[in-house]
Write a structure and sequence with these properties.
Layout: H1 11-23, H2 28-41, H3 46-53, H4 57-65
Helix pairs in contact: 1-2, 2-3, 3-4
Amino acid sequence: MAKKYIVDLDENEVSQLQSIIKKGKHKARTITRANILLMANDRETDQAIASTVRAHVATATRAGAA
């Protein structure tokens, strides 16, 4: 299945997302979404992302659309 959305983050956005993950002071949902966006930026498939973050494929698809 082709990806519906392509994620293309700049360096500043990547560093902000990595900061969210490293600090661990955010909600679990926020950290999961940050991980999804970073993996989508690395061109991982939605299925691989969902498997890695232990979420449903639909979650990976929706989070990549944000």
